[in-house]
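Researcher: We're teaching a course module on how sequence relates to structure. For the next exercise, students receive a sequence and then see the predicted structure as tokens, so they can try to spot secondary structure elements on their own. Here is the exercise chain.
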Amino acid sequence: MAANTHRAHLFTSESVSMGHPDKVADQISDAILDAIFAEEIKAGNSPAGTRVACETLCTTGQVVVAGEVRTNVYVDIQEIVRNTIKAIGYHHQDIGFSYDSCGVLNAIHSQSADIARGVDQARDGDDVHEEGAGDQGLMFGFACRETDDLMPLPIWLSHRIVEKQAELREKGVLKYLRPDAKSQVTVEYENGKPTRVHTVVLSTQHDASILKGEVVSDAAKKEMIEKIIKPCIPEKYFNDRIIYHINPTGRFIIGGPHGDTGLTGRKIIVDTYGGRGRHGGGAFSGKDPSKVDRSAAYMARYVAKNIVAAGLADECEVQLAYAIGIARPVSVFVDTHGTNKIAEDKISELVIKHFPLTPRGIINHLKLLQPIYMPTARHGHFGRKPNDEREGTFTWEKTDQAETLRKAAGV
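Model: And here is the predicted structure for the students to work with:
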């Protein structure tokens, strides 16, 4: 959406909670990746040669883990799966899904040698010490000035609402809440800028205590608006015309993997920008950073965010594209949607000069060979604060290259 759009319009994004079945699958996949990295580091091994592509399916009473792994260490898949489910909040059979009673099927096997030979060493005449991309594909990163985190407002608000739902559930403030939930926020724009929140949808799993007849009581709906939604909306976007839809089906007792089957990688728009900008189609969770689906998407966000933070544009989308076994991207494209302060071709030149874009360069610069991935699998991979207590977490959200770009651009 270009910043010079002069018509008023609405834009909507959604998020899902950590207890949503697809997010349960994402978190299990990333918990396995983290456990393998942690054990490699504990054993004194470099995780650089570790390869993980882990997929999870969860349904009523059953979790299936499959994929390809190359590692020198052992991890207990059963224990990881059950501990992850317990941490999410599925620890009572009356919810319909519980960590201590579900079945766990492990169908992980070794990585294909044909894939490994192109990833371990690039095949395009690059330095023999360079790794090639783990697959072909295109990745996008996006940033804009709608929030302090340089994220689009609708997805940012949607994430904050499910975060608040999880917080109040885990603290026991709203004892009737259960892990599965979805949020959706519609924002009204004028002249390309957000002016107010228009509509908020919250569907949250709950126990039977808040039912009046066969539907959620008006008192419980009001309490969720006051305690979950309103604290998440910045004052300048709040207004008395907001439309609220709270559990619009009337009730939501059966949820989580008991209500719907969950699969890794099925919430790629929730994971990124809520439909703003474009998406290359690749999912993130369960993949080690040799897979450019994940690492290059993180780098594209990092590049776009630093361009906006440097004042080179008010909105920026970056595309990176790769070929399997080839180290350097086959294309780099910067689109500022008409908000650029200097020529876009100049911005592209600065990106190529100041950001490492090979798989190894991305991994080293963003410190991706660490057990940091489980937190990314809930409430979005972008627009999150870097966790300085654990080096490496959300490094792609830093704006440490903004000043370098600003000076190089002369702005």
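Model: If you want an answer key for the exercise: The longest strand covers residues 177-190. The longest helix spans residues 21-42.
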